[in-house]
Specification:
Blueprint lengths: L1 H17 L3 H12 L5 H6 L7 H37 L18 H15 L3 E2 L5 E2 L1 H4 L25 E2 L7 H7 L4 E10 L11 E11 L4 H16 L5 E6 L4 E10 L8 E2 L2 E2 L8 E10 L1 H6 L8 E8 H9 L12 H4 L3
Parallel strand pairs: 1-4
Antiparallel strand pairs: 2-3, 4-5, 5-11, 6-7, 7-10, 8-9, 10-11
Helix pairs in contact: 1-4, 2-4, 5-10
Bound molecules: 3,4-dihydroxyphenylalanine.
The site of 3,4-dihydroxyphenylalanine (DAH) has 11 residues, from strand 10 and strand 11.
Keywords: Aminoacyl-tRNA synthetase, ATP-binding, Cytoplasm, Ligase, Magnesium, Metal-binding, Nucleotide-binding, Protein biosynthesis
EC number: 6.1.1.20
Cofactor: Mg(2+)
Length: 343
């Protein structure tokens, strides 16, 4: 019986080696190890007839062979599996590829880059504001001392240690004047924060581009020329303009710069329908500005008798909304891909 067992083992191992497909391997497994008619199984059925001494020898031997064959079958099955897989892994290079979602720059970023480019061409340098700044830079150095009633014009957030998430990017005026030698021009694109109840035109977080030019004998024509050049370049349109008085403590005179409405070309209506962008007036109040107040120049350590300048602060969100006809400022931060994918 020992010989028979050895033969069965040797036979099985040599056939297993030659097998090339899963079906044949399974048939072989049944032939040797099948529960009813397997060659090994049949031998085991003889065990009860053996003497005790034979049982002690044969029992463990059959078990050993059974385990060895199980391992051999399993191993072969694995290698066959790998061969079949690699045979099946035909790669069709004509199949369309998987699509990746590539993000785009946010419309505000796109417009900021455009605006920066236009002003850089005019010789302006870009300054980045501190998003959190102190009272001196946000208010006092701009001719807005503590308790000045005009501070009410800004709905300011304050931190517990009296710092300010900047309400406007004018916060860089004083630093620019201290750091640069006139004549110089800077723009300050940056994110601002106000304690606002939000609606279609107001957000607690929004963007401004401040501008400041300091030199000698600067007058309103420099200011008007700069702003008009920028707006015509940005909207790629001839625009009419007008200025009207306004008030900001850091400029004197303070002005509002208006241009003919870019939606209705200043007509106040389009296809007989009143233009909602300009409220039927044909004019857009676009950019608050003015000539830099002598006190602001003085506080930055420059002589206001020698130096003069102009400044403006425009809303970047508004520029984006006007260019693309966006009706609600809240789209910008809603994170809705249907909105963002249009740009
Ligand atoms: N800082 C002002 C604001 O946020 C805007 C502004 C007005 C800036 C007039 C200026 C300016 O530089 O001259 O409301």
């Amino acid at each position: 019986m020992k010989n028979e067992i050895d033969n069965i083992y040797n036979q099985a191992i040599s056939v297993i080696e030659k097998i090339t497909n899963g079906e044949a391997l399974e048939a072989l497994r049944v032939e040797y190890m099948g529960r009813k008619q397997g060659k090994l199984t049949l031998l085991m059925k003889n065990i009860p007839d053996l003497s005790i001494a034979e049982k002690r020898e044969i029992g463990p031997l059959i078990n050993k062979v059974k385990n060895a064959l199980t391992i051999a079958f399993d191993k072969k099955e694995k290698t066959l599996g790998q061969i079949t897989n690699s045979e099946n892994s035909f790669f069709d290079i004509t199949l369309p590829g998987e699509k990746f979602n590539i993000g785009t720059l946010h419309p505000i970023t796109q417009v900021r880059l455009q605006v920066e480019k236009i002003f850089q061409k005019m010789g302006f340098e870009i300054l980045n504001p501190n998003e959190i700044d102190d009272d001196y830079h946000v208010f006092t150095s701009l001719n807005l001392p503590p308790q000045h009633p005009a501070r009410d014009m800004w709905d300011t957030f304050w931190t517990e240690n009296d710092l300010i998430p900047i309400t406007h990017t004018s916060s860089m005026q004083n630093r620019a004047m201290k750091e640069k030698t006139p004549p110089f021009g800077v723009i300050v694109p940056g994110r601002c924060f106000r304690h606002e109840a939000t609606d279609a035109h107001h957000e607690h977080t929004f963007y401004q581009v401040e501008g400041l030019y300091i030199g000698e004998n600067i007058n309103l024509s420099h200011l008007i020329g700069t702003i008009l050049t920028f707006l015509q370049e940005y909207f790629q349109k001839e625009l009419r303009y007008k200025i009207q008085p306004s008030y900001f403590p850091f400029v004197e005179p303070g002005l509002e710069f208006l241009v003919s409405c870019v939606m209705c070309d200043g007509k106040g209506e389009k296809d007989k329908i009143p233009c909602s962008t300009c409220g039927h007036s044909g004019w857009l109040e676009l950019i608050p500005c003015g000539l830099t107040h002598p006190k602001v120049i003085e506080m930055a350590g420059l002589d206001p008798k020698k130096y003069s300048g102009f400044a403006w602060g425009m809303g970047l969100d508004r520029l984006v909304m006007l260019k693309y006809g966006i009706e609600d400022i809240r789209h910008f931060h809603a994170g809705d891909l249907r909105f963002l994918k249009q740009f």
